[in-house]
């Protein structure tokens, strides 16, 4: 009687998101958690006992002593690069929490390390935790956009202000909401999912005009409100509006094409289907004011399938076991949403529209300057330990 092979996984980072991973890993029959790691010894020891595994206090110690073959990286953002590069140099499979990195240059380092390691092992797996790609309404939007029902896309407007965070949230953990510890605010912490979903649906814009407000509502040194305008090569424009200071927040997604309009809001996707192309109508109509006849349809969305972090990791584990396979999101895709986020901030700093791709060295230099000149001092650094599942999108 054969027994199922288990993937030997190590977890680096035991903060709130690390604990989220622990909860579902314990339910997976094809995974063995061979080590947990945190630089805070007491935390590593505590969770090692709870999980029945070994504690490590540095990621290199975990890599070199635990016997793992794959790692989940759930640490503060700047460390994603160092840990992923060290993992790939050892030939380990990597699942990285979002964002892939703080800035584009660091993302390129992780990707380069992966591509080099892949020359030795073509079956090496690199995933990124974009669990919002598993959410049914976003999957349906992807299906409709890719299916071409809307024809030529003309405008996308995404207002997503359902990211409320209190001052106590920012005061928890000495790395939060600082240029040196986190590398940014809402774009770096909450919105990597939104930025990924945007590029997943529409690709990268060709030009970005960003307007980021630093500590407008919170006592923080990074952005907590952002409005951005995108221009795509095919003529489509985009608007991206986010903040952590709005309650009640809004999540309204409008996608307009020549053949109609999609609106996702309040758990519904509505399609206003044009009877003919609006572009054809505006060229040929004899009426100066009459719009296109359109039909209102609520798009059915199946919501029963599993979603979230576990689904992403299940795909990752299956790919390891099978020597390859489909992932929810490949790690190399993480640079795309990061490019949009860095571009928004660079445009805002320069107060001008910028082209994509932009000078990644310029943005890294600006970030280094902000780190050096930062005078922000936290008044409270105790860690906020809580169930953060409510902060995840339920789209």
Features:
395 residues, alpha/beta, Rossmann fold, Dihydrodipicolinate Reductase, domain 2, 2 domains, nine-stranded mixed β-sheet, six-stranded parallel β-sheet, 34% helix, 22% strand, globular
Our estimate of the beta-strand percent is 15-25%
Number of strands: 15
CATH topology of the largest domain: Dihydrodipicolinate Reductase, domain 2
* CATH class term of the largest domain: Alpha Beta
Arithmetic mean of pLDDT: 94
- Which regions contain 5 or more consecutive residues with pLDDT less than 50? 378-382
Inertia-based shape: globular
By DSSP (H or I, 4+ residues per run), the number of helices equals 12
Estimated structural class: alpha/beta
Number of domains: 2
What Rg is obtained from the alpha carbons, in whole angstroms?
22 Å
The H/E string reads EHEHEHEHEHEHEHHEEEEEEHEHHEH
Give the N-terminus to C-terminus distance in angstroms: 43 Å
Helix-residue proportion: 25-40%
CATH superfamily of the largest domain: Dihydrodipicolinate Reductase, domain 2
What does the largest sheet look like? Answer: 9 strands, mixed
Q: Based on the structure given, which CATH architecture of the largest domain is correct? A: 2-Layer Sandwich
Strand line-up in the sheet with most strands: 14-13-12-11-7-10-9-8-15
């Amino acid at each position: 009687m054969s027994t199922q092979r288990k993937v030997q996984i190590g977890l680096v980072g035991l903060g709130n998101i690390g604990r989220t991973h622990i909860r579902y890993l314990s339910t997976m029959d094809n995974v063995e958690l061979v080590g947990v790691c945190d630089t805070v010894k007491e935390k590593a020891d505590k969770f090692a006992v709870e999980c029945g595994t070994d504690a490590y206090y540095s990621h290199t110690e975990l890599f070199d002593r635990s016997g793992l073959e794959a790692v989940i990286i759930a640490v503060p953002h700047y460390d994603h690069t160092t840990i992923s590069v060290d993992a790939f140099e050892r030939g380990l499979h990597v699942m990285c929490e979002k964002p892939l990195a703080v800035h584009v240059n660091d993302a390129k380092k992780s990707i380069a390390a992966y591509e080099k390691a892949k020359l030795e092992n073509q079956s090496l797996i690199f995933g990124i935790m974009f669990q919002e790609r598993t959410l049914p309404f976003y999957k349906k939007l992807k299906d409709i956009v890719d299916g071409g029902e809307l024809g030529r896309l003309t405008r996308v407007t995404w207002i997503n202000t359902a990211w409320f965070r209190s001052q106590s949230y920012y005061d928890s953990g000495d790395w939060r909401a600082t240029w040196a510890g986190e590398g940014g605010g809402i774009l770096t912490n909450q919105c990597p999912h939104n930025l990924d979903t945007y590029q997943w649906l529409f690709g990268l814009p060709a030009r970005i005009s960003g307007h980021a407000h630093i500590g407008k509502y919170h006592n923080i040194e990074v952005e907590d409100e952002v409005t951005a305008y995108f221009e795509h090569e095919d003529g489509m424009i985009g608007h991206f509006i986010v903040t952590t200071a709005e309650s009640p927040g809004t999540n309204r997604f409008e996608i307009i094409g020549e053949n109609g309009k999609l609106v996702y809001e309040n758990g519904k996707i509505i399609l206003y289907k044009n009877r003919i192309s609006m572009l054809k109508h505006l060229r040929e109509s004899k009426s100066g004011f009459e719009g296109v006849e359109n039909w209102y349809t609520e798009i059915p969305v199946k919501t029963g399938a599993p979603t979230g972090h576990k689904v992403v990791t299940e795909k990752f584990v299956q790919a390891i076991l099978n020597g390859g396979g489909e992932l929810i999101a490949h790690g190399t895709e993480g640079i795309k949403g990061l490019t949009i986020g860095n571009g928004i901030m660079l445009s805002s700093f320069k107060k001008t529209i910028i082209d994509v791709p932009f000078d990644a060295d310029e943005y890294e230099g600006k970030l280094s300057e902000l780190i050096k000149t930062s005078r922000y001092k936290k008044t409270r650094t105790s860690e906020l330990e809580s169930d953060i599942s409510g902060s995840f999108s339920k789209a």
